[in-house]
Amino acid sequence: MPGTVSKKYVFNNNADGMYPLVLTIIEDLGQINEHTAFKVKMILVELITNSLKHSGQGDTTIAITASGNIITIKKTDTGNGLAVRCGNNLLEWPLPGKHHAGKIITVYNDSSAVLKAKLHNNCMLLFFIEETEETDPIDINSLAEHFGLMIITRACDKFEYGFDIDTCTNSFTVSLTV
Amino acid sequence: MILVTNTHKDALIAGIQVKEANLTVSDGFKNEMTALIDQDNKYIVVDFEQVIYVDSSFLGALVSALKYAIANKAEIVVAGLNKDVSGLFQLIRLDKAFKIYVSAAEAADNKAQ
Questions:
Q1: How far apart are the first and last CA of chain A?
Q2: Domain B3-112 has what CATH class?
Q3: Nearest 5 degrees, angle CA B93-CA A146-CA A93?
Q4: What is the pLDDT of residue A58?
Q5: With an 8 Å Cβ cutoff, are A154 and B83 in contact?
Q6: What Cα–Cα distance (Å) separates residue A173 from each residue in A34, A132, B33, B80?
Q7: What average pLDDT does range B11-35 have in this prediction?
Q8: What confidence tens digit (pLDDT) does each residue in A134-159 have?
Q9: Which Pfam families does the entry link to (chain B) (predicted)?
Q10: What residues does each domain of chain B span?
Q11: Where are the domains positioned within chain A?
Q12: How far B95 CA lies from chain A's nearest CA (Å)?
């Protein structure tokens, strides 16, 4: 159990600082088991990689809270909105129109799984995975080449993305049970 | 240069020379792998022994290289994964796409058999 932890970190979007920051956060979480540490590490690497790719000059903030047996990681940045394709359309935030709540979109799929997202509204969605029946041998050509969202979704219990219209801020909130 | 290569029996061992296999080196890695396949190497062992972690960009480049290898009737296997890297391969099922060996030497021996 990590005990009670509440800390914020600022990442300056310099790739050299990524792994040292990940290790610092793991250390600050204190007593967590090896399996949880692995998952937190993978989640942090992908959240920070997302910032390196998309957030431009602005800083990235990472807030960690641990209470009881739940660890929550929230990353915010002011870069480009999360690039999610729905079919051939690249979604832009906030999503246009109304009646989004409950709608499910397919983000990407390959021979082992389908990454989907359920829209809460026009500014927030929840990722989840539907496993597909494995083929033997695996169809290599159908494999995805973008794994970031898949890694985070597989490593946690809950993964949400939100776009704040007022501040044009992206937030990625991930929680996992120790 | 991200990869240093040497031959061992019938295998080409491509050792990753960076500790952090992330988006800063993924394009370079993909280009170097493509060049090795174009040079008609048919069994390439990507050795992760020096690597402490990989990110999704690097894994994407590795999968892209694998697709290119298959199109050119070549094979890519991986070796020397530490616990985190091995765990990541399992997490996103890449252990089903790549043959994984404990060491590059073991991977090369497997080719020789």
A1: 7
A2: alpha beta
A3: 130
A4: 75
A5: no
A6: 22, 26, 35, 33
A7: 97
A8: 777 788 888 888 899 999 999 999 99
A9: STAS (PF01740)
A10: 3-112
A11: 5-77, 85-161
A12: 10
How is domain A5-77 classified at the architecture level of CATH?
2-Layer Sandwich (3.30)
Taking residues A109-121, what's their average pLDDT?
A: 87
Q: Which residues of chain B neighbour A42 with C-beta distances below 8 Å?
A: 84, 87-88, 91
Using CB atoms, pick whichever of B57, B84, B96 lies closest to residue A112: B96
pLDDT of residue B112: 62
The interface pTM score, or ipTM, of the predicted complex is 0.93
CA distance B94 to chain A (A): 9
- The shortest C-alpha distance from A144 to chain B (Å) reads 8
Among B24, B52, B63, beta carbon nearest to A143: B63
pTM greater than 0.90 (yes/no) = yes
